[in-house]
Amino acid sequence: MLTDDQLRCFRDQGFVVVEDFVDRANCGALRERALELVQAWEPGEHQSVFTTDTQERTSNTEFLESASTIWCFFEPDAFDDHGGLRQPKELSINKIGHAQHDLDAVFERFTYTPALAEVAHDIGLRDPLALQSMYIFKQPGIGGEVGCHQDATFLHTEPLSVTGFWFAIEDATVHNGCLWAAPGGHRTGLRELFKRTGADPVGGADLTRFETLDPTPLPIPPDQLVPLEVPAGTLVVLDGLLPHWSDVNRSDTSRHAYTVHCISESAHYPDWNWLQRTPELPLRRLDTVAA
Ligand code: FE2
Prior knowledge:
By secondary structure, the protein is of the alpha+beta class. The protein contains seven helices and 13 strands. A hairpin with a 6-residue loop joins β8 (192-199) and β9 (206-212).
């Protein structure tokens, strides 16, 4: 699947861009399904989760529990001062996460493909489990920044194995908030771990905190990163240690993307990771044949 040049690029740079990995029709089908999920989603009392301390705890509960569900997360800028939506729901959602690849047939078919399993094999990811998926809308006008980070901070195994598979569902440019990456940055150390630290004494979900491993600053965007402007259908494979970032989207076009993060089944996945599946929904290998 991957050429020698692509494999060398992944090894040397920590990422590789594979254009035309998915055809436009499949991108369109996933986009349509994501919009259907949003249309069908009723936020109910959770609509204004971003405004007070109590609501932040509620938000954290939803975040932690989304490991085994399909949940729609709002953009913080989606709400006005009274907690109402400034614009239609379908233009207010930040992302859908984090188990749609195991709970929705369209997402399942997009994720569990021989081609993706082959890419994982090519880069040396042994026994890949599809740990987490996100459909990211990067909405026009309000799509938020994703700060510079390493994925191994948030999805940690011993030894490190997390690998990101990022699919452009729409064209991504510097204007609508494309990915930026630090070439070679995967050869630097892991800066932080994001850990669950036990139950909130006030009665909410588990609390979380960052633990510093290496105080070396991450590259500062945008100057120390390079933009990955790619057309729809492109796959970008990201090493779990690679620092990457995406800017706000202040343009009038959305930048939909889909990501799947995989870990190696043979690596240890500590129970302090924020993302913990319920026993009823075990992780599946990437070479699972979709129904
Ligand atoms: Fe990431």
